[in-house]
């Protein structure tokens, strides 16, 4: 399985496709796209030219974030989500980040803990789905 990665400084159609499939159609989010998308560095993983995963990183008020990590269903369980997180962390680090923060769906917090993220006390709700803020020192 040969995965290639491309970065985009705009919300590329492949990012939109994956996020619509995963977050809108599968998980039921109605407000998936936000006013932060235009500030982000977006990553897309491809296999044989097909987009299979995406995520984004950005800096706001001196804090680096990673998020919108989405892997197409047929490619889950192959460490692709972990690779995407590490790819985004490396990009943030390259741009000067010392740590990264993310808003994890509570049901996915264990996934991020395995990658070194620590839960904070900041819990919130996004469209009826509980989230927790997490941080990792790079």
> What structural class should be given to the helix and strand makeup?
alpha+beta
Strand order of the largest sheet: 1-2-3-4
Low-confidence spans: none
CATH class: Alpha Beta
Alpha carbon gap, first and last residue: 28 Å
Could you tell me the number of beta strands? Answer: 7
Q: What is the succession of H and E elements?
A: EHEEEHEHEE
Radius of gyration: 14 Å
Q: Major beta sheet, specifics? A: 4 strands, antiparallel
What is the annotated CATH architecture? 3-Layer(aba) Sandwich
CATH topology-level name:
Aminopeptidase
Broad shape: globular
Q: Please bin the fraction of helical residues.
A: 25-40%
> CATH H level: which superfamily?
Gcn5-related N-acetyltransferase (GNAT)
| Number of domain units | 1
On the 0 to 100 scale, the average pLDDT is: 96
Strand content: 35-45%
The number of helices is 3
Task: Note down, in words, how this protein is organized.
The protein is of the alpha+beta class. It has a single domain (about 5-135), classed as 3-Layer(aba) Sandwich (Aminopeptidase), CATH 3.40.630. Helix content is about 25%, strand content about 40%. It has helices at about 15-25, 80-95, 110-115, and strands at about 5-10, 40-45, 50-60, 65-70, 100-105, 120-125, 130-135. The strands form 2 sheets. A 4-stranded antiparallel beta sheet has the order 1-2-3-4, sandwiched between helices. It has a 3-stranded antiparallel beta sheet with strand order 5-7-6. The protein is globular and about 40 Å long. It starts with a strand and ends with a strand.
């Amino acid at each position: 399985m040969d995965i290639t990665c491309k970065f985009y400084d705009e919300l590329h159609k492949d990012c939109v496709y994956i996020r619509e499939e995963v977050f809108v159609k599968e998980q039921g989010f109605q407000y998936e796209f936000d006013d932060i998308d235009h500030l982000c560095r977006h990553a897309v993983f491809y296999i044989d030219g097909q987009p299979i995963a995406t995520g984004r990183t950005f800096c706001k008020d001196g804090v680096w974030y990673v998020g919108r990590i989405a892997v197409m269903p047929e490619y889950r369980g192959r460490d692709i989500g972990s690779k995407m997180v590490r790819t985004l962390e490396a990009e943030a680090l390259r741009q000067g980040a010392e740590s990264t923060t993310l808003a994890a769906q509570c049901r996915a917090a264990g996934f991020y803990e395995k990658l070194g993220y620590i839960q904070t006390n900041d819990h919130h709700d996004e469209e009826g789905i509980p989230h927790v803020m997490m941080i990792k020192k790079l």
